UniProtKB/TrEMBL annotation, chain A:
Gene that this polypeptide is encoded by: gatC
Enzyme class label: ligase
Organism encoding this protein: Aliiruegeria lutimaris
Catalytic reaction list: L-glutamyl-tRNA(Gln) + L-glutamine + ATP + H2O = L-glutaminyl-tRNA(Gln) + L-glutamate + ADP + phosphate + H(+); L-aspartyl-tRNA(Asn) + L-glutamine + ATP + H2O = L-asparaginyl-tRNA(Asn) + L-glutamate + ADP + phosphate + 2 H(+)
This enzyme's EC code(s): 6.3.5.-
Family: Belongs to the GatC family.
HAMAP family: GatC
GO MF annotation terms: asparaginyl-tRNA synthase (glutamine-hydrolyzing) activity; ATP binding; glutaminyl-tRNA synthase (glutamine-hydrolyzing) activity; transferase activity
Name by which UniProt lists this protein: Aspartyl/glutamyl-tRNA(Asn/Gln) amidotransferase subunit C
Subunit record text: Heterotrimer of A, B and C subunits.
Length: 95, 493
């Protein structure tokens, strides 16, 4: 399957990465090269094979569902590009 | 003084204990070498004040009769590890200015053991690359040089490899998602170990592909890899995929006796176009292990050729999820916005400015293979093939194979910039021998065993059974002894 510039534009939008229109054809070309390489997987007989979910078979640990961490708002906000009055600040969202 | 920085961890440990040298002297020697080595682009954030403070504390501990073999050992830390109060930006512009408020589990354990942080090391952006050319800091350069070209130290742990090979530090941390410890180790003539998935905590290491990422040591010897792994490994409640298994004494496992060990040679790793000198190196490695008493057997890992395409579905898929957090809100940089820009424009501009081309490409490929309508065709199919790749290894080990010997890389180090115009897939082929190991969650080690015709280092890879790093290190130790690789890069920097 081949990716055209419309698909490339849609993928960039889904990934929330701004790509200028004039860069889309080259991007679509790169996608096609990589996906062409991935197409080889269609040769493999995967009938009856379960998709791998965990590389080492192990049961994940359980613990009590209680708060074990927190209480340091300042540290959480310390690296924010814009933090005000104890919150992360973002551009105005009006729906 | 510079002779001090050439020491292995094992040698330094002995000298520190006997009082022949102090950690402060060792650390200062490394700091002096680092100051002279900016041309290598290895250290991108230097932390001399922290280093000298930690060294003084280590000296006090050693005087008090310490104990831990990593105490007083000066290390370089890959920029992917979060280090409290010290820039940690995964070599990405999007994390410019980020100073974590916390310390990764691996580095916490190393500092608790008494090790010393010299600074942060260059790498490919978000560990995506095989040449250290995608870094926001600029290229790391290989200390090995045979003509007027500057060579890549490999990637993604290129700064780590360059720093260890150039004796700027005694050892360094690396991380390996598809070969990012083993390929740069091979390109620079050092030892690099990727442990079993789950052996080392991933907590506080900036995530690339969570089901493949694993941190490990990059060192000057196999023994050093064993010593350093001991300090890095262990269960961590903060990483639910870290294994709750005891950490054995890996160094004690290096006995030099590999008689009766069965070493598999997988026929699928004979790939068209592999240079004759790599084939020769591989055959010689098998011969060395045979001479040491191991049994060499031919094995088959039939799904090998599908490992790279599988990886280039799974790794970008996981990366697209992991990197969704870089949105200009919580950390790092935010793009300058135009009048009237809303939150979507903020995300899109921040990510377009903050991520380099390779990272953008992989995030978008990952987005595509996970998108509605393609999830089954790409992502689920890749996970099924991954299960088959793992089954190949399981069957080899069930048949009694103790370790598998392969080349580490399909070539020696190439020139920086030589791959610029190549298709991205050409660069991906660097990981053809290493990527299977990540997909199957196995331990793998790259050991330098020879030089190519031009005089550049080449490495072989040994792949071990899960959780059997001790046995793997023992076999690697025998290979190292037999190969007797002692070449060092000539100093030009």
């Amino acid at each position: 399957m081949s990716i055209d510039t419309d698909t490339a534009r849609r993928v960039a939008k889904l990934a929330r990465i701004k790509v200028e229109d004039d860069a889309l054809p080259a991007l679509a070309g790169e996608f096609n090269a990589i996906l062409g390489f991935i197409e080889q997987l269609n040769e493999v007989d995967v009938e009856g094979i379960e998709p791998m979910t965990s590389v080492t078979p192990m049961r994940l640990k359980r613990r009590e569902d209680v708060v074990t961490d927190g209480g340091y708002q300042e540290k959480v906000l310390a690296n924010a590009p814009d933090a005000r009055e104890g919150f992360f600040a973002v551009p105005k969202v009006v729906e | 003084m510079s002779e001090l920085t050439k020491l292995t961890i094992a040698e330094a440990r002995d000298k520190l204990r006997s009082g022949d040298v102090t950690s402060t002297e060792l650390t200062q020697a490394c700091l002096d070498e680092i100051e002279k080595a900016d041309a290598l682009g290895a250290f991108v954030h230097k932390t001399p004040e922290i280093a000298l403070k930690q060294a003084a504390a280590a000296d006090a501990r050693i005087q008090g009769g310490a104990e831990n073999p990593m105490c007083g050992i000066p290390l370089g830390i890959k920029d992917l590890f979060c280090t409290q109060g010290v820039p940690s930006q995964a070599a990405s512009n999007i994390l410019d200015g980020f100073k974590p408020e916390y310390e990764s589990t691996v580095t916490t354990q190393l500092w608790q053991a008494g090790s010393v942080m010299l600074g942060k090391l260059n790498m490919d952006e978000f560990a995506m690359g095989s040449s250290n050319e995608t870094s926001t800091y600029g290229n790391a350069v290989n200390p090995w040089k045979v003509d007027d070209r500057a060579l890549t130290p490999g990637g993604s742990s290129g700064g780590s490899a360059s720093a260890v090979a150039a004796d700027l530090c005694l050892a360094a941390t690396g991380t390996d998602t598809g070969g990012s410890i083993r390929q740069p180790a091979a390109f620079t003539g050092i030892t690099g170990l990727k442990p079993t998935y789950g052996r080392v905590s991933r907590w506080g290491i900036i995530a690339f592909a969570s089901s493949l990422d694993q941190a490990g040591p990059m060192t000057k010897s196999v023994r050093d890899a064993a010593i350093m792994l001991g300090a890095m490994a262990g269960h961590d409640p903060k990483d639910s995929t870290s294994a709750d298994l005891p950490v054995p004494d890996f160094e004690a496992a290096i006995t030099g006796d590999i008689r009766g060990k069965k070493i598999g040679i997988p026929k699928e790793y004979r790939i068209d176009g592999t240079p004759a000198e790599i084939e020769k190196l591989w055959a010689e490695g098998a011969e060395m292990l045979r001479d040491a008493g191991a049994e060499i057997v031919d094995i088959s890992l039939p799904h090998t050729k599908y490992a790279l395409p599988t990886y280039y579905v799974i790794a970008p898929a996981e990366a697209s999820s992991n990197l969704a957090r870089y949105d200009g809100v919580r950390f790092g940089r935010r793009a300058k916005l135009a009048q009237g820009d809303g939150i979507t424009e903020m995300y899109e501009k921040t990510r377009a400015e903050g991520f380099g081309a390779e990272v953008q490409r992989r995030v978008m490929i990952g987005t595509y293979v996970l998108s509605a309508g393609f999830y089954d065709a790409y992502y689920n199919r890749a996970r099924k093939v991954r299960a088959l790749i793992k089954r190949d290894f399981d069957q080899a080990f069930e048949a009694g194979v103790d370790a598998i010997l392969t080349p580490a890389t399909p070539s020696a180090a190439f020139g920086l910039g030589e791959m610029t115009d190549a298709d991205p897939v050409q660069m991906y082929l660097n990981d053809v021998f290493t990527v299977t190991v990540n997909l199957a969650g196995l331990p793998g080690i790259s050991v330098p065993t020879g030089l190519d015709a031009k005089g550049l280092p080449l490495g072989l890879q040994l792949i071990g059974r899960p959780w059997e790093e001790g046995d793997l290190l023992n076999i690697a130790g025998s290979l190292e002894t037999a190969a007797g690789f002692v070449a060092k890069p000539g100093r030009w920097w």
